[in-house]
TrEMBL record:
Residues 277-415 form the Oxidoreductase molybdopterin-binding domain. Residues 191-210 are annotated as: Disordered. SUPFAM superfamilies: Oxidoreductase molybdopterin-binding domain (SSF56524). Pfam families: Oxidored_molyb. It comes from Rhodococcus koreensis. The keyword Acyltransferase does not apply. This is Oxidoreductase molybdopterin binding domain-containing protein.
Amino acid sequence: MTDHSRGPRLRSPLRGPWLTSVFGLVLLIGLPVVIVTGLLSYIAYGPQFGQARPGDVGWLHLPYFAWPTRPSWLYRLTQGLHVGLGLILVPIVLAKLWSVIPKLFVFPPVRSPAQALERLSLIALVGGALFEIITGVLNIQYDYIFGFDFYTAHYWGAWVFIAGFVTHTILKVPLMVRSLRSRSFREVLRTSRADTRPEPADENGLVAEDPTPATISRRGALALVGGGAALVAVLSVGQTTGGFLRGAALLLPRGRSYGNGPNDFQINRTAAAAQITPEQTDDTWRLAVAGGAEPVQLSRSQLRAMPSHTASLPIACVEGWSTVETWTGVRLRDLADAAGVTAFASAKVTSLERSGAFNQAVLTADQVRDADALLALEVNGAELSLDHGYPARIIVPALPGVHNTKWVQSIEFREA
């Protein structure tokens, strides 16, 4: 007699512990990288200065330390991995969910305390993963479309996912190891569709009781999922790596607004969106530098008269895109010297922008003292365009893009 207690009959002969474990192994390797790089991004925003979001995370706050400036491509690497690998893993996540669908129809849903814990971990794992994927993809596609703060929701959603991931891993790793050892991966890759057979019946209910003939081999299924992941990689990694793949980066359209000539690179927030007016950036503009005995006001001509420095540095955005450009300007440490600042613990940079979420940033002393940390006046041998921060912007190696403040109005060197 057929057991109908599992609900709809999901009859694919491919489902079983082995295939589920293969997808699980890939996620077990990839998801920790996504998790760690995401948490590093939070630290890079400087939670010790209250500028990371969310600001108040209670006992879930991460260790505070000054985000390093070397290597200069550090944030480009960590955030590129977080966004790029997160997108690449989406097909594997969906395949893993497909492989365990029969468990969603098991009745009764809870038969023991151990199974109850497994179910709770599964809810946190699947719910957290879907929330992080959906909101993350929407955030890199569109500009602040949510009715809630994305950064706060993404942070708390990440911890829900992490809790489910860790618990589920502890519960399922022994089963995954046994399942992977049950058959040879090389043998599976040599098995054609005609020779594909269901796995032996299992106690977890993944194997169909009355499987249909195979319409694709396990080799084909793995190739399909792997090909999907490879396609996502081609359509996304170009925004981080640059080169010939940049034009194919269809999954990261944010930052696809570009300038002209030497200023022809990504613009995440235009001057119009920031409500920067011509009167704010004309010849009357002055940079206010405070922290010494007396505040100092510097015009662009005075800044140009100071010793200049040129550096080829990346600028990387939280949405995953990055680019390397050649910047010229005044070292921040030279500005501190010009203002008579002898000792400081941090520097507060304020923009002409008034309404933006990141219209100011606090830099650590080490970030300011880096030899390539600049108040940039030029890029690629030309003046900054208005959209790229004219009359002056901050460029600090390895700093998140939004903290490389554009349209700088003032720099205050502070003792704490």
